[in-house]
Specification:
heterodimer; A: 100 residues; mainly alpha; Non-ribosomal Peptide Synthetase Peptidyl Carrier Protein, Chain A; 0% strand; disordered C terminus; B: 328 residues; Rossmann fold; 2 domains; 3-stranded antiparallel sheet; 10% strand
């Protein structure tokens, strides 16, 4: 299942009683009345637990969380960033080991 | 409306006329719809319950109004002192019901502490806390809720609340409003009275109440009044100045909490004007000029008003039926 499909499935199961209806990947959760501010908390909890990323305060904005495709892009970006930081850490640790 | 025309004057009313109108309507509703012989008003020492009680006294007489004082473990002592002062000034009977034992029995405090410990593991005896919201005026985005916890040594922790602890904290806290309402109806039933609710328009419109808690009542005499207008009536009705000067508080959490910290984007005078402007089609530019905000900030407040209306709509709904049942 692609990232978009996973997000979509979470939204449909948790907020639409399993009935996707007219939801498409670009439907605005807020404008369509699919997810409210409490729902956003639930979505963030899902993202953090499922994908092991930390959603910062300043990232709680519609640009990141207001549609299936926005959420998927946001997570993808977060995971890439986390991987980059991980690689840099490995290099740093490796370098330190080498020095010893 | 042109820029410069919009100001707080739009909320100015004729207090004498408005008081007469409300009292006439309360009498009419009591006689034709509610059909109970008096009103119970829960007193918090705040402006809304004080004005509601004063209106009830004017409408049906002080001998037919009873004030309930229902503090709990974390209520401010100020609330009780001021509600006593109000009751004395109106000459109404009051009943004192300390609700901490009832809250203890239903697990309110334990469930609250459990939820807080999900984010602040050391939370316990000697700590105090409250919930505050993110400042959407400074950082536009989805509303986030933060727990502010203070230990005995006055160290303060502020942590964003995840989904589960947030819901449990709110659910546990709602016991307070619901236990109070249960007692209001106990006294209403034993006296053959009805219950007067105390929301102002800002609270009523924006869903700032607990369903079947402070949201429950038989009659809500000030639900059509902006909070600034409630203050105007308070002055006319002779509500003690100390109550009129008191900063609005929720008096619900162990740490003092302003209503604008927990729920509204702006303090009530500005929030009132934004709500009026939105309801009456005033352009954000005119509102911004009057309030010293930017048009973009006013648009954010308008948007927040709409979001709150939508997310709290269910609080206003009666139980929904699969098909209409004619009972009238």
């Amino acid at each position: 299942m692609s990232l978009q499909e996973e997000i979509r499935s979470f939204i449909v199961d948790n907020f639409l009683f399993g009935d996707a209806g007219t939801l498409n990947n670009d439907s605005s959760f807020i404008k369509e009345g699919i997810v409210d501010s409490t729902g956003i908390l639930q979505l963030v909890a899902f993202i953090q637990e499922q994908y092991r990323v930390v959603v910062e305060d300043e990232e709680l904005i519609p640009e990141n969380l207001d549609s299936v495709s926005k959420v998927a892009a946001f997570i993808e970006n977060k995971m890439k960033m986390a991987a980059l930081v991980g690689e840099e850490l490995e290099v740093a640790v490796g370098g330190a080991d080498g020095a010893v | 409306m042109k820029s410069g025309e919009f100001s707080k004057e739009v909320l100015r009313l004729d207090p004498k006329r408005e008081v007469e109108r409300i009292c006439g309507r309360v009498r009419e509703l009591m006689l034709t719809q509610v059909k109970r012989r008096g009103l119970v008003v829960a007193l918090s020492g705040g402006i809304d319950s004080s004005v509601t009680a004063a209106l009830a006294v004017r409408a049906i007489g002080k001998e037919r109004v009873i004030g309930l004082e229902m503090p709990e473990r974390y209520s401010s002592g100020e609330s009780q002192r001021l509600s006593g002062k109000l009751a004395a000034s109106l000459g109404i009977e009051t009943v004192f019901e300390e609700i901490s034992a009832a809250l203890e029995a239903v697990g309110c405090y334990r469930k609250y502490d459990e939820a807080v410990r999900m984010v602040v593991p050391g939370y316990g005896e000697g700590w105090k806390s409250k919930i505050v919201i993110s400042n959407n005026m400074e950082h536009p985005g989805f509303t986030s809720f933060y727990l502010v916890a203070q230990d005995g040594a006055q160290g303060t922790t502020r942590v964003r609340l995840p989904f589960k602890p947030y819901l449990q904290i709110v659910a546990a806290t709602n016991f307070k409003q619901r236990i109070r309402k249960m007692l209001e109806y106990y006294h209403a039933d034993r006296l053959n009275f009805a219950v007067a609710g105390t929301p102002n328009r800002l609270e009523y419109d924006q869903g700032f109440f607990v369903k079947l808690g402070d949201g429950a009542a038989d009659i809500k005499p000030i639900a059509h009044l902006y909070k600034s207008q409630v203050y105007q009536l308070a002055e006319y009705l002779g509500v003690p100045a100390e109550i009129r000067r008191r900063k609005p508080t929720t008096d619900t959490y162990s740490l003092a909490q302003g209503q604008d910290e927990f729920y509204f984007s702006l303090p009530y005078p500005e929030m009132d004007l934004c709500l009026f402007a939105k309801n009456n089609g005033v352009a954000p530019e005119s509102v911004a000029a009057a309030l010293g905000l930017t048009p973009e900030q006013v648009r954010l407040v308008f948007q927040d008003i709409e979001v709150k209306r939508s997310s709290t709509r269910y609080l206003h709904l009666p139980p929904l039926l699969v098909e209409a049942v004619d009972w009238q």
